Amino acid sequence: MTYSYVSHLYCPKCNNTYNVVEKNQLCSCGSPLLVSYNMEEMKKVFYPELLREREPNLWRYHEMLPVQSIENVVSMGEGMTPMVLMSSLGEDMDIPNLYMKDEGLIPTGSFKSRGAAVGVSKAKEVGVEELAMPTNGNAGAAWSLYSARARIKSTIVMPTDAPEITRKECVAAGANLYLVDGLIGDAGKIVAQAVKDYDLFDASTLKEPYRIEGKKTMGLEIAEQFGWELPDVILYPTGGGVGLIGIFKALQELKELGWINGEKMPRLVAVQSDGCAPIVKAWQEGKTNAEPWQDASTIAFGINVSKAIGDFLILDAIRQTDGCAISVSDEMLLDELRTISTKEGTFVCPEGAAAFVAARKLRESKWIKQDERVVVLNTGAGIKYPNTVEVDAPILQPKDRIVKDYVK
Amino acid sequence: MTYSYVSHLYCPKCNNTYNVVEKNQLCSCGSPLLVSYNMEEMKKVFYPELLREREPNLWRYHEMLPVQSIENVVSMGEGMTPMVLMSSLGEDMDIPNLYMKDEGLIPTGSFKSRGAAVGVSKAKEVGVEELAMPTNGNAGAAWSLYSARARIKSTIVMPTDAPEITRKECVAAGANLYLVDGLIGDAGKIVAQAVKDYDLFDASTLKEPYRIEGKKTMGLEIAEQFGWELPDVILYPTGGGVGLIGIFKALQELKELGWINGEKMPRLVAVQSDGCAPIVKAWQEGKTNAEPWQDASTIAFGINVSKAIGDFLILDAIRQTDGCAISVSDEMLLDELRTISTKEGTFVCPEGAAAFVAARKLRESKWIKQDERVVVLNTGAGIKYPNTVEVDAPILQPKDRIVKDYVK
């Protein structure tokens, strides 16, 4: 039985092709490479009913993933995260069919584990022994931990402002961790130099072709969880944008397989922060590429990316699905984060909260209709971001008694 | 269709019975109450093949859970956590079939969510509007967040030494949080007083009968994940011990249903810390109840429980399954925690690490045989315990270059 129907890599800019057995990075033209599958062969043997017999993790879609031998799969059980109906919040927003796909319930506590699981597995398959990457925190945590499991050495460079827990995860993994007094772009330059100096595999966003295949599984799961009847809108907090590109790729492939109705694609929404909104600006100006954002700053650190290497793919996905790009303020997302936890009991990450604010705003502007089914990606666990909550609780002594105002 | 085959509550000490429609706490004799089901009726309609059609969360076992109406289910998608083969660690321990059930991949990041999901759902069903509980952190986080989702008010009292993130989760949920300069026993006394003073529902461990049913689902999932062929040994970090009692109850019920071979029950192991080992002491001394442990102290804070109200049930479960109780040192568990993350890429909680140390020790003493299938419960996500990892990483400036010793 064929485990994967992967065929080759291709360049979406110059159409050059590459094989999937050697270590490949960017195309010689400088563009990211995408993975192609032999869909005609896959169609003959792969159908939705097969999935019912499989474990609830992302490897259930192995025919559509690039790892060719099951022996190379590096897994900690990632995927099939819950699709949670948010009734109270939805009522508050006037979106009765509001859902959260909760990517906090995954190894390392963020959606980055999807890209890491598939990316590291394929790196192992093509013989990578040592990799390096810049990160805003969560990707470094995920890639260093999956690399540890795969016996691949890792060098991680992250801004000093990245969530503190993520540097601890890198250390726990035994990675070579460096902090940089700057932004992820600065970390990227340091990694690029180290890659040259020490002949490392460059695992930077979209500089290796396979993490997008891992992120793609979010789209596959959304489709499966809705019984292959797609929702109307999907909102995604966008930094490097690989998740959005991946979801779009998933939907296109499902259409090609004939599993979904291709006439009614969900509208994809790229959500950014007012303090770092290069994609929003490019979209508003009708451009195909984004300009680097100056003095980028937001509490939603995961989307603090001034320049995304896949900007043209993000903008294309939004346009092709009649989606949009929208930014929100840090103040609003912090308010929303608390509204979500008190109304729904779900403690989301700042990036996820930003996407919920976007849903609220788009409903207010009527871009989202009342009867539409709306999915928000919460890209990580709130517990990785303790600084979003201030605690001011009374301290009692053992003989004390709770005496007053205990009910708020 | 009958959603639940729950029948009544019974006292394992005096055999008194209670109904499942009113608010019940302890038996009038002071013992915890257990939930009974109409197994004969359940058998007629509930069989393993049904599960394949159901979503991967703990409500797939709703016939065996106490919530009678699906409308009362308060869920964030909890359950069906991964069963991860730990090959490298297993090789290191000479236990080739070593598995981790990873309870970090669940809402609120700890196995406490199982008890909270079922306990809060049933509380909602019987009309609870306000509850209170003492906690070592994670249970308070879980119960306050699930209560928020259920529109139930909560009052949580936890030691000041409890993991800091858990107090933030309580605040995020909008709970009334109090810290106590003492141990969980002191928090328990304050809660008991508040329950009297303000007529609250007491959600303390085993003082309400339903959380054990939620914890029971760990046992159901283990059995299902092994294809109803049970593993040989299950190790469980034991504080209040509800998980162990629940797993034992699950196995008994599955035996009654005829889904498993009742002749070959897994040996259950209660793992404690050298600094707080009342169950281990009682087991060694052949007692049926445990004495309160003096000056309890361990870094594995979740198992820092001097006196468990269900001690007699824990000791009974260990004896009936030919299991054992064992304690480990804080030093060893911290070493093991790092061994686990570097070898397997899994970042576990201190309590989970303690249970892995116990597996190692029991293999060394030959209590665990080489060919046995061993399951360790990792009861929470490592990211909730940042203090287990020290970071000492170089800080670079944007123009810097990684120059030396980047490979460890």
TrEMBL record, chains A, B:
EC main group: lyase
Keyword field: Lyase, Pyridoxal phosphate
Cofactor requirement: pyridoxal 5'-phosphate
Gene Ontology molecular function: any one: threonine synthase activity
InterPro entries named among the record's database cross-references: Ser/Thr_Dehydratase (IPR050147), Ser/Thr_deHydtase_PyrdxlP-BS (IPR000634), TrpB-like_PALP (IPR001926), TrpB-like_PALP_sf (IPR036052)
EC number: 4.2.3.1
All residue ranges annotated as the Tryptophan synthase beta chain-like PALP domain in the record: 74-380
NCBIfam families assigned: PRK08197.1
Protein name per Swiss-Prot or TrEMBL: Threonine synthase
